[in-house]
Each structure stands twice: as C-alpha cells, then as structure tokens.
Design goal:
Layout: E1 2-5, E2 8-11, E3 24-25, E4 30-35, E5 38-43, E6 46-52, E7 56-58, E8 64-66, E9 72-78, E10 88-97, E11 99-112, E12 115-120, E13 126-129, E14 132-135, E15 138-140, E16 145-150, E17 153-158, E18 163-166, E19 171-177, E20 184-185, H1 210-216, H2 239-245, H3 271-283, H4 288-304, H5 313-316
Antiparallel strand pairs: 1-2, 2-3, 4-5, 6-7, 6-19, 7-8, 9-10, 9-20, 10-11, 11-12, 12-13, 13-14, 15-16, 16-17, 17-18, 18-19
C-alpha cells in the first residue's frame, strides 16, 4: 500500500506494517532519518567545493588556495571503507590557454555506478558516457544518475545527492550531502568542518605546499607532458596593480553594497570571488573577458543557492 503523509510517500506492507526509511520517498533536497522509531524526511545540508578561474580552489570546509598544475587531479572521492557508502570520484584535468603562468579546468571526469562521465570544455550540451559522445539530458543506472543542462552548465546528480556542475569552461562546483562528511578526500578536502586539515595527502600527511598537494592527488596514469606548478615562476600581482582592478567598475562590482549581487552577499561571501577576480585580471594584463568570467562564476554560484541576481552584464559590459 502507498501512503502519502506530510507530502512524502510511504510504502506500507500488510504483513510488515512497521515503517523504515526503505519505505519512504523523500523530496529532492531531503533524506530519511529514523527519529524515535519513525522514518522522517529531514532537509539535507551540503558542503560545497569550488574551482574557479585560473584556478582558485575553495574546499568543502572553506580553505582557499591557488594551484596552477596542468595534470589530472582527484577533486574528491569516497575514502571510507563503510560498505554502505556510495563509491564515486570526481577528477579534473587542467590546461594552459595561452598564458603558461596559469591554468584552467578543461575536463571533468565523474565515475559512479561503474559509469564514467567525461565533460570536455566547449562541448556545450554534450558529455561522453563511457567514451560515447552523448547529448543531454541523460538518465543512467535505472535513474540513479541524472545528467541535464542547468543554465550554461551541465549538472550531474545522483540519488545519494552528489551534485557536480561544470560550465564547459573554467568553473567547477562539487556538492556533497552531510552523510559524506569526513568520508571523502582529495583536493577538495574531507568535509569535516575543519579547514585546517584540508591539505592532506593520500597517506594522511599534511602537504607542504600546493604543488605537493597536487602531486599527491595527481592521477597516476597521467602522461608526463603535464606539470604540477607554473612553467617558470608563478606570476604575482603587485599591490598597486591590484588596487586598480578593485574599483566598482571592475571587480568591485562583486561587493558593491547596492550592486547587482547585493542579495547574495549574506548567502555567499563575495570576498574570495573579489580576490580571485583581481588576481585573474592582474595576471592576464586586464583582459576584459577575465572580468566577465569572474563575475559569471559568482552569479552562477548565487543562482545555484537560490538567490536572484540582477543584471550585471550591462554595467560590466559583458556579453551573453
């Protein structure tokens, strides 16, 4: 028998009337938890890892760092032996795009349910499923793995609420539910609430620097034609030069109190996005496209959190 209770679906057996979470279908952003012997749908909470621009990393626990390697690296994967946990991995391959001092995410690889999803830069609207070029939307693994286009990004989501978004350019977002807290590892950290231990190597040691961290999480079958750092010395941004990019007409638009992003400030702190924007403009000699990409990254993340963003393209002179 099917029972609808408080907007949730319950399956009740005549011979086994006791309910469990196996009998419950919760809504999309919820998970079932037994509360005093009763299966209850509770709102799920998520940890988010972001890789933006050339490239700036924000771990699940909020630690930030820049890393310019051009190999394939494990962003996150299951790192717990609990047999009830889903096994998955998310990897990203970085690439140079003209400037050898910086790199960008060019390929995203998600492996789950014995299926490999590969998303390649500029292949908008398409992914590769086990190396087969496929058009979105796609449903796999009896519906447990869903792929669709969301705005200008591909959204890969599973029944255990893993979400991966990539804009086919340079912006990667990975969201994991609370049940995976402290059960994952990789460049995105372990999601245990402590940003101080987010730069751990696979053996549990603390990485000495970002190059060491990247080397530790590099995919071992990667070709030798890649690097875990900049070619030559990584470019820095002098304070005087950074100052000119912080004005409200440029990167300062992100934090403008009455600007197009104002409603998002209380949900996602714009500081990291502002710092990333300034750096990206600085190392690319003020290239206007880098401003547009930086603003778009914040706009996309705000919309993903359900925040309405006003028109930012007009004041920033950024085309669709």
């Amino acid at each position: 028998m099917l029972l609808l209770l408080l907007n949730h679906l319950f399956f009740i057996s005549a011979t086994h009337p006791t309910l469990s979470c196996a009998d419950v279908i919760c809504q999309e952003q919820e998970r079932c938890k037994m509360v005093e012997g009763v299966p209850t749908c509770i709102q799920e909470t998520f940890s988010t890892c972001r890789v933006t621009g050339d490239p700036h990393y924000l771990t699940f626990d909020g630690k930030t760092f820049d890393f310019m390697g051009t190999c394939t690296y494990t962003m996150t994967k299951t790192c717990d032996e609990d047999p009830d946990l889903p096994v998955f991995s998310v990897k990203a391959k970085n690439e140079h795009r003209g400037n050898p001092k910086v790199s960008y995410v060019g390929v995203v690889i998600v492996h789950v349910y014995d299926i490999t999803i590969t998303v390649v830069r500029s292949e908008d609207g398409f992914v590769r499923v086990n190396n087969q070029y496929s058009r979105l939307p796609i449903s796999l693994a009896q519906g447990k793995l869903q792929l669709q286009q969301k705005g200008r990004s591909v959204l890969i989501k599973t029944d255990f609420l893993l979400k991966v978004l990539y804009d086919w350019d340079d912006h990667l977002v990975v969201k994991i539910p609370s049940v995976l807290a402290n059960k994952v590892c990789g460049m995105c950290g372990n999601s245990n609430g402590n940003p101080q231990d987010d730069v751990l190597l696979p053996n549990g040691d603390t990485a000495q620097n970002t190059e060491d961290l990247g080397w530790g999480w590099k995919v071992l079958d990667e070709s030798s034609a890649c690097f875990d750092s900049c070619i030559g010395e990584c470019k820095r941004c002098p304070r005087d030069e950074a100052k000119k990019y912080k004005v409200e007409a440029l990167c300062g638009l992100l934090s403008q109190s009455s600007g197009p992003f104002q409603r998002c400030h209380a949900v996602i702190n714009p500081k990291n996005y502002l710092d990333n924007c300034v750096y990206d403009l600085c190392v690319n000699d003020g290239l206007h496209n880098k401003l547009c990409q930086a603003l778009k990254a914040y706009a996309d993340d705000c919309r993903e959190e359900g925040v309405i963003v006003d028109d930012w393209r007009t004041p920033a002179r950024c085309r669709e």
